[in-house]
Recover the amino acids of this structure.
């Protein structure tokens, strides 16, 4: 089995990409005969590209392939007023990959601000029921469907993790249609790429369980508040509890992993685990602001006093990889 993954990054997020890709390689190389990491390069420095290649070379089954789309991204990036980095549109260049890699059948797109904590080999063999895209429901599903005019019977998924049938994507001319939609309603989109993917492909989407995209705001203490806040809670609580302790992919959902202030002990511990094994293990963590440092201190103090931190580490202990395997 070949496991193909797609990433998009510029140099600002290269540190996140480094730890993210390590977590993918660590879990997928034992499961697949070959692992390919396709990176849509939106301005990654030569130094960081070399670090990524060197890290990938530690896994004989793997290769990393860079596609420099800096100039093309500037030419096609929709002019939408948004706080998001223009790199969010990089995944739309997926349609160019089959020309050079005709064997590409399925690809798992992953944002750089997430970590794989269990293998996801089943994504490459599971039935997609003729659909083009699969993803986990977003926490704002109901509100975004109403705002975009997506019918209640359709799904709205978070675009941080997407399982894509490449041939269906090409048949539907998805990349062009998504860009056209973004440009047609630029002022109505909160999450331009995500909103457009869900609107244009609404008949072609089915939902994955939350363990494939466990977002930090769905940590256990927040479930009652989230349920009150949202018009229709997207996830059964039992599914979220399972995902919280047996998650496959943990998603920091827009937060830089290096600045993450530990609001969820399980997320902080998963990040620490893979950072110390990756080629980024010597990179100092930073908090981005004094406010984040204060929050981190308060959260860690509370977790220590209540025992929540120990609970999370005990839950993680039976699957914590041994960093000595990668000391060399």
């Amino acid at each position: 089995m070949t496991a193909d993954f797609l990433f998009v990054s510029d140099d600002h997020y290269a540190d996140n990409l480094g730890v993210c890709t390590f977590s993918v390689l660590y879990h997928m190389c034992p499961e697949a005969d070959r692992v390919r990491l396709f990176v849509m390069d939106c301005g990654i420095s030569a130094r960081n590209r070399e670090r990524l290649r060197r890290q990938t070379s530690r896994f004989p089954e793997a290769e990393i392939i860079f596609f420099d789309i800096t100039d093309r991204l500037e030419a096609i990036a929709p002019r939408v007023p948004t706080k998001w980095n223009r790199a969010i549109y990089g995944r739309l260049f997926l349609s160019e990959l089959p020309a050079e890699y005709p064997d590409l059948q399925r690809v798992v797109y992953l944002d750089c601000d997430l970590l794989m904590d269990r293998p996801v080999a089943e994504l490459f063999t599971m039935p997609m029921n003729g659909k083009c895209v699969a993803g986990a429901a977003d926490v704002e599903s109901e509100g975004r469907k109403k705002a975009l005019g997506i019918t209640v019977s359709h799904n709205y998924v978070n675009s941080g993790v997407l399982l894509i049938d490449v041939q269906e994507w090409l048949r539907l001319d998805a990349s062009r249609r998504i860009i056209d939609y973004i440009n047609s309603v630029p002022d109505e989109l909160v999450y331009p790429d995500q909103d457009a993917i869900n609107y244009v492909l609404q008949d072609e989407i089915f939902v994955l369980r939350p363990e494939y995209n466990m977002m930090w705001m769905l940590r256990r203490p927040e479930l009652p508040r989230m349920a009150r806040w949202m018009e229709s809670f997207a996830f059964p609580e039992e599914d979220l509890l399972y995902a919280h302790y047996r998650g496959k992919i943990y998603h920091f959902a827009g937060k830089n992993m290096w600045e993450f202030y530990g609001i969820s002990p399980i997320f902080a511990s998963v990040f620490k685990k893979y950072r110390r094994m990756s080629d980024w293990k010597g990179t100092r963590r930073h908090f981005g602001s004094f406010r984040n440092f204060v929050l981190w201190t308060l959260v860690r103090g509370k977790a220590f006093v209540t025992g929540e931190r120990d609970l999370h580490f005990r839950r993680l202990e039976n699957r914590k990889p041994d960093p000595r395997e990668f000391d060399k």
Observations:
- The first helix runs from residue 14 to 28.
- Confidence is low (pLDDT under 50) at residues 309-328.
- The longest strand covers residues 2-9.
